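Changelog-adjacent note: as of this version, every example in the card shows the full chain rather than a window. The one below runs 154 residues end to end.
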Amino acid sequence: MNGSFRQRGGLWVLGQSALLCVVGAGGILYRNQWQSLAFTCLGAGLLLIAGGCGLSGAVALGRNLTPFPKPTANSRLVQGGIYALIRHPLYTAVFCGSAGWALVWQSWPALLAALALAPLLDAKARREERWLRRQFPDYAGYERRTRRFIPRVY
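Full-length structure tokens:
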């Protein structure tokens, strides 16, 4: 791996991708491990939330969109749209989508991998925020008034 990949936070992307592969494959290969309409409906709801957060986050970021946590030198700080509610809607989308997928498929391995994504995404977001604070003087104020993943909660 070249230095640029690692310097941009590529190892975070690899870890996240590996867990997403386990979530995806686990759901298909180990499905129907329990029967619960309530969990299936919860999973479907989480998938809808994931779609909304992911789409609105990608649209708001526009050309700033990248899989890497380190912002590019020519990026701008986005604080509008869904970013006025939460600082990391794409990470929220990844987690909700993964948990939703596991619940819809009713798969324990997929659910465990999805739950393992939570601390990884939290750590990735914290690392990204250190880079954002260095690059954007306004980030500290934005951070104080906007929650990380869930509006008004966390």
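Structural remarks: DSSP finds six helices and no strands in the chain.
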